[in-house]
Amino acid sequence: MVKLKSNDDKEFEVEEAAVIQSEMIKNMIEDGCATSVIPLPNIDSKTLIKVIEYLNKHINMGKAAETGEEDDLKEFDEQFVNMGWEELFDVIMAANYLNIHELMELCCQSAADRLKNKSVRAVREMLKITNDLTEEEEQEIINDAPWAFEGPEIDDTVN
Amino acid sequence: MDVDGATGIHFNEEIVVDILSRLPVRSLLRFKCVSKIWMALISEPYFTMKHLKLAKNNQNSPKILFLKDMFTSHLSSLTPASLPLAQFTENNPSTRESTVLRSTEFLPSEDYICGLGYDATSGVYMILKIGYQSCSEILALKSGSWRIIGKPTGIYRSWLSDMDSQAFVHGAFHWLGLSRDESVTSYDISNEVFKEITFPDGKFVVPGMNCVKHGLSFKEITFPDGKFVVPGMNCVKHGLLVLGEMICICTTHYDQWKYTFNLWIMKDYGIKESSTRFFTILSTDLYSLVPEYRFSDGEVLLRCKHFDRCRYIFKTTKESSGFGFNLVQNAFGMDLFIQKA
User: Which Pfam families is this protein grouped with (chain B) (predicted)?
Assistant: First the structure.
């Protein structure tokens, strides 16, 4: 078992087989640096619980294919990303920090799917981005491809 | 996560790029408007390559991205042969390094076309220079020197036109050769052999042509009071291209102010019997029509030139379903993003 500690000082025990899906922790274990608790100063307990849930479900990915559990795993993934924006971004940052490739793929794809039809205003609000383009610059971009800014599917809601 | 907006969401650029590269082109063009950083990220050549790579790996992806150099428009999209190549300058898009290659050493300067191919066996990129009349030369990018590979037997001359006229697929370069019958000449770069691929007889030959020059043929038109040869009045252009790994030949036939565009597709590589006429399009307002891409549902994207418009327009073969194609060029006119809506 490997012990992980979140930035709000909560400790979690995870099976080695699950936790080595994180390249970062795998390297630490291989280098013999994982004998005591591994502190994760960038990850809060709420996010870490999500990540561990994913890791535990995805142990032995190879076996899933043999035993026909692929659909089950797919369903789990779909349910897993069904979370709020902020939560999703926390998981993405944790997956990036821990270097968990599959989780990164899953969450970035989900983020992209959600952003796909959003309006510019909605994206700015969702990602808390301040617009620093001048009106002229903005108009120039719109004039380049007005068709990208029009259409019934463009969604101005923030969720 | 702070949701009151005071701190915002701080993704590093790498993550933003990862997410953005999964978006369709239409969204990307819109999101250039989000902020200066997003605009810069989306306009980066590195991003274009990453986006292209993801789209290529995703068979179901309805989006395509053309990387084209205005000066070498023969190098079209989505194959190794499409890597931008200009004036014998090699660009490696993944590392963004470029090298100026040695100019050709042997052959007299005549018109030629160039193709870029990749030999998977040796892992070497090759540039083939095909002359209209004479031999061809090949350059292995690793060795950096040109070498003559001769010419295929039985082929009188290469038949190159201003349409796409060469393609790299199945480990070999392909171009139109003119022998007794029109055929496709192929040069396999791993085994260094020429081959001839024939299409069913007369498939892309237009009867009555008696003069062929640079892929453009002229027909004698008989008028009541005599014979005139009117160049350009009645002509045929041929192009060779690849759609979804399949070799295709497209022709443009002009007669009496009407254009006829034909496309033949060879479904199984090298099997003459597997070739079929894919479409015949008649038009009075389009004067150029080049197939560019085949979608997974079999629909083909066409790059057309219209008499009234100076830019290319894009259509699909199933026009009736309403096409949502559009064209965007960056300031240098180099990158064309196309998306099927």
Answer: F-box, FBA_3
